[in-house]
Design goal:
heterodimer; A: about 450 residues; alpha/beta; Rossmann fold; 3 domains; 4-stranded parallel β-sheet; 17 helices; about 15% strand; B: about 475 residues; 6-stranded mixed β-sheet; 19 helices; nitrogenase activity (chain B); nitrogen fixation (chain B)
Chain lengths: ~450, ~475
């Protein structure tokens, strides 16, 4: 059964299951070496998003703003944007500034492309950083659209020339954790592949302490790497939601013939198999021993632990591709996703959920798109889940329903270490499986009259 | 890169004793400076958020609502409607054709669903641009449901947080004076500018209760619409914080003749002074109140001081930095740090006034840096230069301190620990102690350098102490 939002008159939103478009863009820009995200809008947007992102990553997240005031809103934000860029150059000496618009500047109709053109003319005598722009009106789409949009902008605006073949593989992983990015690099190494991760905030948003304050944290995809993406032997792009859309991978394929492989986000066994097979085909190498061993350990664990979680009922919510990945994992291990929900609404989501669960479940989960937590709760309350799988935002609901909550994705701001949570690959699946089994055991222990010492 | 100040920012930073006091403030944030400030909407939302039985509907695209969903520690003793995040989630279509229809429908739907005692409708940047008539929509819905529905003119771009405070106060002022005040004690106050973070208002209310003073309304922590409506029946307004509710106090003074006093519940002196101010105000009606108050203060201090002394032993000589939203809080914190034997070397705020900063310059030691509307680079520069041990601030400041291997105390709206009252002073001291004395600093590159003598600690002076175990364990850490 495919359910849409249960309300006939959708007018208000209560506890949104999405974030706004520019937030996603700032995260993508944060994954570029020497990059500073810049929001063209009023000061509050930058500050709110900084606060929100900091609570998850616990790292400095400097987002510059053109800090528009009332006058700028009337006469246009161009002068402030230029002044802001100059100030960021003076204080941060960035290599790249990623400019994302906001609802304010989209509505007043600032032509950022033209303003940046003027900026380059006016200040051409200065050593200018690369300035990448993306249009992210917050009244359209979600943070994921902002994220993918910024990745596309980076690829389109920075990678403009065909370079010599580099032998590298481009990986557009989507919005995953810092640990996921590190693990991807590791997988690449196992295949003797140099990967260009776009973006790569694994160090910039999960780095060490400093002796001297670093205005821009070390790490990120270098400008050189991005410019060389045209010479890659292939691109991998994670996310079923990207199919048929204009993406960085599609653009590189169209302009430079870099073959683009769109894969589901490699969460769970089958999606990870798909990634490994693709890498194996690409390199002409068998799946490396270390990775095969990880797969073996995962299967072994699935056998050891399957009974503890058998038949549990789960509600999964959040960003489309993270939700799809988690749904896939749950279906594979014998937990029944009964409701799968996202605040986004690109179409095709229900079909993707069903496809991912095919052959694994006695009945298909209900699917909800374009919903808020009010809608999810209205339906989930009736479905009586044992388990919620999603970001921290489901906490209050889990508490009300006396259900467990496995925190995955973003934001995780009521637990520690969300940036180091591994979702991807066999190892990610194993870690998530361990957590799920332990949640079940802990519940059994806590609700038992005698509290078994051995389970 | 050399961490020099932007030329335009120099007027907003003052070092006490180095030059005659002169400070620019109340300026628009500089484009590209990565200000720690928020916006008008944020100011309004902050002030009104804890009114727990009102509907708080954000009219705008989803971000403004979602980033303010249950982010504060404002506790309620009853309803918790304030902890939900309501939005009209404006879409492109609404931006083109106007959002009034959607706003009205959303209000109707949510009021029917939650039966709130009142509704606040927050305007955001985009609503200011497309020109939705909030006033008209609110009036219409108000008539339909018979509850107060108040527009909050909080378009983000119209200034900083401070303008948001004013917008919130204007909205609340519509409520004040609309209910019966019979039965209110002549010894009565309203608690203004406290948000009941971690239940702090309950601490203060207990003190006032022990003094025999009735609290009519908490504005806005643990707030109720009905209380605000009869707030004008109180004899006195106690206004805390740098100005979040000062405008409302002024309006009430003008319209209802209710006087106000400025108070602070942070730190020992300010807490005691605030209670004495209340006693002083009511002593003509109740001559015994002064005795009751000093007894209360004595009892509390007798319990507190020995506990503080233990902590102070470790903290003596350490250096603190303060960066807060409103400067008023900084006054109290400076005094609180003195009780811990600590020295404040950097103090700043997002929205202080010239008078605030002048006062800060008066009460701090020479060499203290005072800063208005700071940004991460400036804060990190001075943390380092002033060799700070503990930094007090909010979520955005925390990683700046931590990245440099410096202790931190969250003194923000998300905190879960009560820092007000005498017990709050103890909690604060525990917090500072827990951070400053943690062994983790021994492993930080900066501290390690200091222990090994490779970092210049000249700024510290002869009286300063490093963290005691540094020298002992640094070898093992490196």
């Amino acid at each position: 059964m495919i359910a849409t939002a249960p309300k006939t008159n959708y007018v208000s939103t209560t506890n949104a299951c999405k974030l706004c478009t520019p937030l996603g863009a700032t995260l993508a820009f944060k994954g570029v070496a020497g990059g500073v995200p810049f929001l063209h809008g009023s000061q509050g947007c930058a500050t709110y998003m900084r606060r929100y992102i900091i609570s998850h990553f616990r790292e400095p997240m400097d987002i510059a703003s053109s800090a528009l005031g009332e006058k700028n809103a009337i006469y246009g934000g161009g002068p402030n944007l230029k002044k802001g860029l100059i100030n960021v150059m003076r204080k941060y000496a960035p290599e790249v500034i990623g400019v994302a618009t906001t609802c304010l500047t989209e509505t007043i109709g600032d032509d950022v492309h033209m303003i940046l053109h003027e900026f380059r003319q006016e200040f051409g005598d200065l050593p200018l950083p690369a300035v990448v722009q993306v249009s992210t009106p917050s009244f359209s789409g979600t943070h994921m659209d902002g994220f993918h949009g910024a990745v596309l902008s980076l690829a389109e605006q920075l990678c403009v020339d065909q370079v010599e073949p580099t032998g590298r593989v481009n990986v557009m992983s989507g919005f995953v954790s810092a640990e996921d990015l590190r693990h991807m690099r590791e997988i690449g190494r196992a295949f003797d592949l140099e990967l260009t991760l776009l973006p790569d905030y694994s160090d910039t948003l999960d780095g060490p302490t400093y002796d001297e304050y670093q205005p821009i944290a070390a790490g990120g995809t270098t400008l050189e790497e991005i410019r060389s993406m045209s010479g890659a032997r292939a691109s991998l792009e994670f996310g079923t939601s990207l199919v048929g859309r204009k993406t960085a991978g599609a653009s590189l394929e169209k302009r430079f013939g870099v073959v683009n492989h769109q894969l589901p986000m490699p969460i769970g066994l089958r999606a990870t198999d798909a990634l490994m097979e693709t890498l194996s085909e690409l390199t002409g190498q068998p799946i490396p021993e270390a990775i095969a061993a990880e797969r073996g350990r995962l299967l072994d664990a699935l056998v050891d632990g399957h009974k503890y979680i058998a038949g549990q009922r789960a509600v999964v919510y959040g960003d489309e591709d993270m939700v799809l990945g988690m749904t896939s994992l749950l279906a594979e291990i014998g937990i029944r996703p009964v409701l799968v929900a996202t605040g986004a609404g690109g179409g095709g989501f229900a079909e993707a959920v069903h496809e991912t669960c095919a052959g694994l479940l006695p009945e298909m989960p209900e699917v909800m798109e374009k919903v808020d937590f009010h809608d999810i709760a209205a339906r989930a309350g009736e479905l009586k889940p044992d388990l919620l799988v999603g970001n921290s935002k489901g906490y209050r609901y889990a508490r009300d329903w006396n259900a467990d909550l496995l925190r995955v994705g973003f934001p995780i701001h009521d637990r520690f270490g969300g940036q180091r949570l591994l979702h991807l690959g066999y190892r990610g699946a194993l870690g998530l499986f361990d957590s799920l089994v332990n949640l079940a055991i802990e519940r059994k222990q806590n609700t038992s009259d005698i509290g078994y010492g051995y389970i | 890169m050399k961490n020099e100040l932007l030329e335009e920012r120099k007027g907003q930073i003052h070092t006490v004793g180095e030059s005659p006091f002169d400070m620019a403030c109340n300026r628009e944030s500089l484009a590209g400076a990565v200000s720690q400030r928020a916006c008008v909407f944020c100011g309004s939302r902050v002030v009104l958020y804890p009114i727990a039985d009102a509907l708080h509907l954000v009219h705008g695209p989803i971000g403004c609502a979602v980033y303010t969903w249950d982010i504060r520690g404002a506790l309620s003793s009853g309803p918790e409607l304030h902890r939900l995040s309501f939005s009209t989630d404006l879409q492109e279509r609404d931006v083109i054709f106007g959002g009034e229809t959607k706003l009205e429908a959303a209000l109707v739907e949510l009021i029917e669903r939650h039966q709130p005692k009142a509704a606040f409708v927050y305007s955001t940047c985009i609503v200011g641009l497309i020109g939705d008539d909030l006033e008209a929509v609110c009036r219409k819905v108000e008539e339909r449901f018979g509850i107060p529905v108040m527009p909050v003119q909080s378009e983000g771009f119209k200034g900083s947080k401070r303008e948001g405070y004013l917008a919130a106060c204007k909205a609340m002022n519509r409520l004040v004076g609309t209910a019966d005040t019979t039965g209110i004690s002549p010894l009565s106050v309203n608690i203004f500018g406290d948000f009941n973070l971690a239940g702090e208002i309950w601490i203060i209310r207990k003190y006032l209760e022990r003094m025999g003073v009735e609290v009519v309304a908490n504005v806005t922590g643990d707030g109720r619409v009905a209380d605000v409506q009869r707030a004008h029946g109180a004899a006195l307004n106690l206004v805390q914080c740098s100005g979040a509710t000062l405008d409302l106090a002024k309006m009430m003074e003008e319209e209802h003749g209710v006087p106000h006093v400025r108070v602070s519940y942070l730190g020992i002196e300010d807490m005691a002074d605030s209670l004495y101010k209340v006693a002083e105000f009511f002593k003509d009606i109740d001559p015994d109140i002064e005795r009751r108050t000093s007894e209360l203060v004595r009892e509390e201090l007798e319990a507190l001081m020995p506990k503080l002394a233990g902590l102070r032993k470790d903290l003596e000589g350490k250096r603190a930095a303060i960066y807060v939203g409103g400067a008023f809080k900084a006054f109290s914190l400076i005094k609180a740090f003195r009780h811990l034997g600590m020295k404040v070397v950097l103090v700043g705020s997002q929205t202080g006034t010239r008078e605030d900063y002048r006062e800060l310059a008066t009460i701090t030691d020479p060499g203290t840096v005072i800063i208005d509307d700071a940004n991460p680079l400036e804060l990190s520069k001075y943390i380092k230069e002033k060799d700070v041990d503990v930094f007090v601030g909010g979520v955005k400041e925390r990683p700046i301190a931590f990245k440099l291997g410096v202790g931190f105390c969250d003194h923000n709206h998300e905190r879960k620990i009560a820092l007000e009252g005498f017990i709050g002073m103890y909690n604060f001291a525990l917090e500072i102690h827990a951070s400053a004395m943690s062994p983790v600093w021994n492993f930080m590159p900066r501290r390690r350098g200091r222990a090994e003598g490779t970092v210049d600690s000249g700024a510290r002076g002869p009286e300063g102490k490093g963290c005691p175990p540094c020298a002992a364990t640094a070898g093992g850490a490196s």
